[in-house]
Structure formats: C-alpha cells, structure tokens
C-alpha cells in the first residue's frame, strides 16, 4: 500500500489532485493514535500529516495559538504551559483506551472535536477553533477563519471541519483560542451516592453560581467505592469560598472529601481519557451523549448487557459504557435506549468485524444523510478522503 507524507501544503495539494484523478482512496492520519475509531478503512493508500509540523502562531497576549496539523499536541501544550496558558477544552488522550502508540497530533484535536471534562464550562474543541487551513478533494488549499472569533454568514467551514474525522479534507493548519491556567484546582468527592442521586447532586452544583469545571460520577466498583466528583478552578481564595458554599448547598448528599494537587489531577486525567474502562482490552467501549437528567435511566436500560460497566462525565450528559464485544457489542439495546431517552452513541472501541457490521456513529435520518452526502460531494467529489469511515458509502 502506498504511503504519502507531504512536506508542505503545496505538496499535499499535488498528492490529492493526483489521487482524485485516478481515483485513489486515501486514509488520512496525523499521529495515527485513533485509527481504531470508525468503520474499518476502505482505502488504497495513506496520506499522513506528520510532515506538516511546527507552531506557526503564538500570541500570548491575544490568547491564540496556531500550528500545522502534524505538530505533536504535547509540543503545543508544553509551549502554552511555559506561558501559563492551556487549551480550554481539555483534549483527551485515548492511547491507553485504544491500545495505540504514536503521538497525538494538533490537527487531530480539531478533526475529532476532541473535548474532555472541561467542556461543561469552556465548550467543545470546535468552540475554541477559530481558523483552519485544509486541502479539499480537488487538491485545492482552503483557508477559513483567522485569529479572532467572528460572526459567520453562509457555511462555517471552521466548525464544519471540527468533528469531520478527515472525511472532508486534509487539515494542514489549525488555530485555537487559549485560556490562562488556573492558580489552583480542587475537587469535592462525595462518597456512596447511587447514579440517580449523584446526577441530582451534580445538577444542583452545575445550576449554582459556583462554576464547576468538571462534574463526573464513578459508580461503585469502577474505582473503589462510588464517588461523585465536582471540580472548581481559579484563585485559591475563590476556591475556598466556593468549596464551602458547595458543601452547604449539597449537605444532604453527605460530607465530601477535598482533593488537591496531583491526586486531583490524576483522577481527572482518568476521567478525561476513559482510563477506568481500558481493561479488559477485548471489551467494546461506547461513548453516549444524552440529557444529564436522563443518564441514569439510559444506563438502567442497558444494565442487562453482558459485562456492562459505566461512568458519567459532563454532569451525567456523557456516559462511557463498556460491554462485551460479542455479537453486535450491545448495539441494538444501546440504540433503542438512546432513541427512548434522546441523544447519540458512538462505538469507540470494538473488533474490526463488529465495526464493519454495526453503525459506529449514530445513524442519521434520511434527510440528514442527504445533507451529509451533499456536503461530502461538495468538498470531496471523487470520494478520496477516509471513505466510509463515518457512514457506509460516504
């Protein structure tokens, strides 16, 4: 199988034009750490962004950073940390979950709309993404957005590329807004709550004026006794005040432990990366989004699945679910529960045969599928980019 690694955007344009002319179907990769997400590859060659590396823009005072798509994410994060700044949306690292190697790339953060626990406070990756450069399926270099947030009329290509999983174009450069790192981070950990009470407590905290930046629940047995986690960030005096007020507000849910320092940071990394469900490696992993208040009802509906285990993020609105990978990996039961409660489910990890047999991403209605097919045809008329990765035939 051919493998292409362009050194610059012009070379990438030439490679794509040639592929479209044959046509030759291309699997787009950055660090190749998320290759196991999506339907099995239906490609004939690999097009890697790894050679498109380097930070192109950093203005700490304007809180903006830009880099070529193949730049290691860790390189960007190290630069930001040296100036006391960070990506607001807390991108996850799924290497432990997926058993993959390599180095996550900056462009893949945008391509996967990779957003962690802080999404409840700072929004998703797409909300901080303000500029992209990409090569479309005709081999044309496209620029959209810039250094500042603007109102957009017409098709917003920046937001369209976020979460497109490389199906619309090869990202060559991305630009994000950043935020200052907080002086202190602390977490209230309430012990012993069941799922319904935990989500009730998280909802009360999120509805308060005390500004949570993380809201998760770990059921009993996943990481020891059940723990309901509420994270706050900011100046130390502000955190002391907010912790005290949250304790008073939530006193009917018990007496929480306060976690600080590395213990707090490590726990949220595990939530961010879904590391609690990494073992056993042969299990299937689902990522389910729903209304926070409906999370416990949804998990109750799938609790009968073989080897089902789960935990909640985003105040109950994000459910990470592990099931046995046999058969359809619980797809029929999970899709029915999602239909009943509202939301969508993505199969993040499963054997290739399962990912080929069941929809990996939430199935689209007929009207939405027509829109999706139209957007794909407009950006990639020869169908060279990641064919079938998200939906069969697209």
UniProtKB/TrEMBL annotation:
Keyword Flavoprotein: yes
Keywords: FAD, Flavoprotein
UniProt keyword Flavoprotein, yes or no: yes
Domain spans labelled FAD-binding PCMH-type: 1-181
Transmembrane segments: none
InterPro entries given in the database record: FAD-bd_PCMH, FAD-bd_PCMH-like_sf, FAD-bd_PCMH_sub2, FAD-linked_Oxase-like_C, Oxid_FAD_bind_N
Pfam families: FAD_binding_4
This protein's name: FAD-binding PCMH-type domain-containing protein
Organism of this sequence: Methylobacterium trifolii
